[in-house]
Amino acid sequence: MIKVGIVGATGYAGVELIRLLLAHPEVEVTRLTSRAEAGVRVDRLFPSLRGGIDLSFEDPANVHFEDCDVIFFATPHAVAMNTVPALIEQGKKVIDLSADFRLEDIASWETWYGVAHVAPSLVEQAVYGLPELNREAIRSAQLVACPGCYPTAVQLGFMPLLQAGVIDPLSLIASCASGTSGAGRSAKINLLLAEATESMKSYGVSGHRHLPEMEQGLSKMAGSDVKLTFVPHLAPMVRGIHATLFAKLTDASLDLRGIFQTCYQHEPFVVLTNGQYEPETRHVAGTNRCEIDVTQPAGDTVVITVAIDNLVKGASGQAIQAMNLMFGFEESLGLQNLAVMP
């Protein structure tokens, strides 16, 4: 049994962490922090958790996590980097769901996030937390930088073909749609029901902060520089990411589904639909699964479709998957739940 703390436990990723960890047989949730909600019982703010937890939120300024084995950061970007160094010095394991330790190029991170990075030395130490790519490194990591939601879907979709060297790495395209929860729990006019429902739009077309993370990971998979055109969209749904990926094949006669099967045959959370049905966000809602299909229309273009829950496989579930690896638990422990239907 391990003891867990969560910093920033009132956002969507934070409450999803609580929900999933309460069902984990090897975890005791002991510390939950929130500046704005300090002193408030968790189940008063989130009635959906009634009967599962009797803790109250604590002010992070008063919590030092001495009784925790691992601390999750579900905070906005540029927050964790101020606190994580002290926890690392204490020997604590840390799993950061923000972008603070994802990008190896510090200058690029500072450009995209608009602030100076105060813990660049930890970026070198952090392990990128995509288990399908870095499983063994995660096992021995002290600091894990969880991938973003879009980067999770895009990288898992392209990985088999890039590793096999059968697509042009300089002409990749990702057209992706996310539910409104991907923008966080803060009040924003464009996320009001009247604004977001019955409509779909692109955003960040001229540049999105997830792009350098995706190109960094995809380049490692390819063993060479990768160029990606990334267009995100806001879809009128709460949860989910659907990614439609395009690439040019270097050999149009390949068994593409065979390549994906070889790559993912032992992965507990990757489901290959093999043309039997199209990946849909509703198939994975509330789960840590990633559905993928690959199709080759006429010519040399390959199309990969991917569906994940942005709050689970794209955030909190993947973080728990990394935690399981770090502590020697069965990788799928606490993450076996099925999707909600409808």
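the 2nd protein, sequnce then structure:
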Amino acid sequence: MRIEWKGVMPAVTTKFTQDDKLDLDMFGVNINAQLEAGVNGIILGGTLGEASTLTDDEKRILVETTVDLVKGSVPVIINIAEQTTKGAIEAAHRAKKHGADGLMVLPPMRYKSTDRETVTYYSEVAKNTDLPIMVYNNPVDYGIEVTHDMFEELLKFDNIQAVKDSTRDISNITRFRSRFGSRLNVFTGVDTLGMESVVMGADGWVAGLVCAFPAETVAVYELAKAGRIQEALAIYRWFLPILELDISPQLVQNIKLAEVTTGIGTEQVRAPRLPLQGEERKRVLQILESGLKSRPQLPDYKVLI
């Protein structure tokens, strides 16, 4: 499937049972909720997907299950977060074999690579797969920035097509757009900059709280993209206290708890993560319950998709 890099693409959580197995039933419930809301793709095995805790076989199961669920309606993209170039290339080969349509690729894990090493890493992955690639640029959390000069070198590979920008610098979207035009599709990866990024010209939004609130997230994107700013803003202002749960070291636990409150997920995480407890759990639940009490009536945003 050719990927049209635009719109809302949820970085979905991985659902687990109480005995630490994949919960494919609840996973399916959530994927179907995303499709019903009108998302443009499904991204597996990202930070929210607890990628570092998944086995290769679990990743295979998630890809194959998602491909079966979406039935070609949207692309299925899997994140690659490997320590070695060889491991990343092997992961890309497995992704294609299992039916993925594209890749989201982080720089090397653990080792803080230099600019030259980072460019070489991405180049080797791109040369060894024909799957389209989104570069995941998150220097805040992962310590390596893929700069505009580095993209100048990387874009000689036709299959490097998009960037998920999580620098938290809203002006970076304008810099990408000014320098590369339509050659590079730009997504925001920060929920609390979701609407602002769309207004500034982002092609899409790799979202987190969409996992619990798919319709609201897609509505904000589609309304903002259509220039219906006041309608988008009304939803976004309601949404922002919830979206702030994404910018936390416990974002996985926060968003899984949010999925529980909206009935499309479970609270189970994989150790060493543990579910929230005590005062922090109360605080997050208070934010979610307050939001649910004032949940807005959405306009018919689907006519814009």
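The beta strands are 7-10, 42-44, 76-80, 102-105, 133-137, 160-165, 185-188, 204-207. The chain has a mean pLDDT of 97.
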